[in-house]
Every structure is written in structure tokens, then in C-alpha cells.
Design brief:
Elements: E1 3-8, H1 14-23, E2 27-33, H2 37-47, E3 51-52, H3 56-61, E4 66-69, H4 76-85, E5 89-92, H5 100-113, E6 117-119, H6 127-137, E7 144-152, H7 155-167, H8 171-175, H9 184-194, E8 198-207, E9 226-235, E10 240-246, E11 258-264, E12 267-271, E13 276-280, E14 284-286, H10 288-291, H11 310-314, H12 340-353, H13 362-380, E15 386-387
Parallel strand pairs: 1-2, 1-4, 2-3, 4-5, 5-6, 7-10
Antiparallel strand pairs: 7-11, 8-9, 8-15, 9-10, 11-12, 12-13, 13-14
Helix pairs in contact: 1-12, 4-5, 5-13, 6-9, 9-13
Bound molecules: nicotinamide-adenine-dinucleotide.
Amino acid sequence: MSISIGVVGAGQFAPSFLRLWTAHPDVTEVRLTDVVPERTAAMAEKQGVKVTHSSFEDMLDSDVDAVAIFTQRWLHGEMAIRALEAGKHVYSTVPMAIEADQVARIIELVRETGLTYMMGETSYYYPSSVYCRDRLAKGDFGRVFYSEGDYVHDMDLGFYAAYQYSGGEDWKKTASFPPMLYPTHAVGNVLSVTGQHATHVSCVGVKDDRGDGVFDKSVSQFDNDFSNATALFTLADGGVMRTNEMRRVGYPSHIRESRLRVFGTEGSFEQLATTTVWQTKEGVEDISQLMETKPSGNAEDLDNVDPALRDAFLSGLSPVHDRSRLPAEFAGLHNGHEGSHHFLADDFVRAVVDQKIPPVNAWVAARFTLPGIYAHQSALQGGVQLQIPDHGNAPA
Ligand SMILES: NC(=O)c1ccc[n+]([C@@H]2O[C@H](COP(=O)([O-])OP(=O)(O)OC[C@H]3O[C@@H](n4cnc5c(N)ncnc54)[C@H](O)[C@@H]3O)[C@@H](O)[C@H]2O)c1
């Protein structure tokens, strides 16, 4: 069996995946649509996409097997629901949704239809997660009781340009997207290691003070003025997780934008921008070199991506990645986000074609997304502790 995939959203992120799915041996056809017809036409020509649709609705009415959602971060939930209702398999960029009801509806639809839903959480495949999953499986951590995941990306490092590209004249309205509604690179990085889920959260938001109209409640479509937020979670096994979502921070996100720390009773893992260590009661091992990713592809392919974001879009595999499971056709192709793109693109195709549940399925995606939705609510209520609903594990 092989499949056709329709990519929705001809923005900055989609080309990486258009190239990979076009090369994938089990993908017969890749299609494209965008609400801005010029973007669809220009990207289709550049990436060699032969079939385009005039709209998302037109794509849903077509015989395409799967839809891959690469639209702005607040649009994914409703679009995934509509695609599943139309009988399409769904790949969605992060986050899964921005409302708990949307998450619940996606899970209900996946359960009812048996269609594949996968959230493209890059951090699941970061060298840090791969390394820590392996150490945990070997018992080297002992009991993990505390972990931290941060997504540290300053607005000045590419986000102003990205929101302007994305939002046009009204870009400030959406550039205020609440940091905790984009929680998956922090929460997902931790939970993809431990397999746990968060049950309760207390979060504090830091109100922005730059005064440039971004993170200004009177302008914000999300009524949001938090630019940084910190949340403390209780996990189902009694452990603790802390996350930071930072958009105003003196930190080099182009070197490493997601940082992981995992503390167990026998071993611990700590990551900074350029230094990563494994520690036991006896000493410290510098494992920074294992976290380094080789550059992949070339910057000319990234002409619609702001220069400050290009390093992330170019980062390839690290020594801890096992590329032997990937299609041979991917060798030498553009990767990105710490080597995750090749694994994401292949895992979605494998899930649909082999009818197996993907690693970041709807149930796991809910556990990576809901903690942030409730964290933001907690911050709006001055840090009050809130319970986080859980949809359980994916069915076997
Ligand atoms: N590490 C990661 O996982 C990672 C990295 C980058 C981006 N992302 C996510 O990927 C998504 C896409 O990012 P981007 O930078 O390409 O965004 P973008 O704003 O550059 O592009 C989004 C595109 O979607 C189009 N669009 C909006 N509504 C549409 C509709 N109804 N039908 C068709 N097209 C529509 C827009 O016109 C725009 O061209 C975002 O949600 C972002 O959060 C994730």
C-alpha cells in the first residue's frame, strides 16, 4: 500500500516535509494548498508538487488519503477535526489544539474511525530524548522523580519576521500567542522520556513590558500579555515536572532552543545550550558531543525562512540517532530540528501504511498539549493549582 498526502499551508515549515514525502517510497503523490494562492503556486513550482488544491475544503473533498496540517499554531485543532470528519488521516504540526474540547473531539474521532492521527512533535526525536529513553530503559536513572523541559526562544531571534510573514499587516494580533499554548517542545521532551502524564499544574506568567504592541492585551487576538511563563506539574507517578516557555530571554535559541533535565535516584542528565552532562553519585561525564547534530541540506532551500531560524531548519542527525530504519531515499536530504524531520516524516507514513499507531498518537499528543492549556489557565488565575484531564493510553 502507498498513500497520497495533501499538505495544508505553504509557509516556512512545509517545504522540508514536502521534500521528504515526495522522496518517500510509500508516498505516491504529494499535494499542496494555501489560502494565499500565490504561495501555493510558488511553492508547488519550487518543490515539484504537481497537484494543488484551491482550498482546504477542496482538498478534503478530493480523494487524497491523508492531510498534513502546516498552518498557524492556533488553527490545528479545528482543521484536524474537519479532516478526520472527512475521513482523512491527519499529520498535524504542534500544538495539537489550543482548547481542551478540541483535543477531546480529535481523540473521539480517531477512536471512532480508526484513522491515523499523529502530532509532529520534534522533541520526541531530539538526541536528548533518544539518549534519555535509552538510559531509562537500561535502569541507569533509577526512579525519575524530577524533570525539566524548557522551550527558550526569544522573539528577536526570528519570531518577529516569522509572525510578519505569517500574519501580514495584523501580525501583532497573533504574535502574542500565549507561550504556554505552545508547550509541546518542553512538556513533550520530558514526557517522551518518562512516558508519564501530568495530573495537576500551577503556573505563573510574566507580563511583558517592552511596549511594542506585541503581548499587549488591547491588540492581542488571545487577550494575552504574558511573554514568559513557568509551570510546575505533578505527574501521575508522584514525580514533579517543571517547564519554562520563554519568548523574552537572553539566550541563543539558534544553538539549542529546547533543553532537557532529568533527575533520577541513580543518575541525572542536564543540558545547556552547548554542554550536556550525564551524572551519577560518582561523577560527571561530558556527553555534549553525542548531542551535536550534523548540518543537513543547504540554506538556499530556506529562502522563505528568516536567517535567525535557519540553523534549526538545517540541523541533521546526531551520533545517538539510528538512521538505519529510515528510507534509503532520505539519505542526504534536508533534515531539521535536531534530526527529527526524517523520523517524523517516516513515522507518519509507516503508521498509515502499516496500520500501526504512531509514537506521538492522539493520546500521547493530548498528554503533551493539555498541560500547557491548563498551565495558561492557571497563570490567568494567579497560579492556582488546576487538575489536568487525561484521556488515558492509546488503545492497544
Ligand atoms: N519544531 C517544530 O515542531 C516546529 C517548527 C516550526 C514550525 N512549527 C509549526 O508548524 C506550523 C507551520 O509553521 P510555519 O512557520 O510554516 O507557519 P507559516 O505561518 O509560515 O505558514 C502557515 C501557512 O498556512 C496558511 N494557511 C492558514 N490557514 C489556511 C487554510 N485554512 N488553508 C490553507 N492554508 C492556510 C497560511 O496562509 C500560511 O502560508 C506552525 O503551527 C508552527 O507552530 C513547528
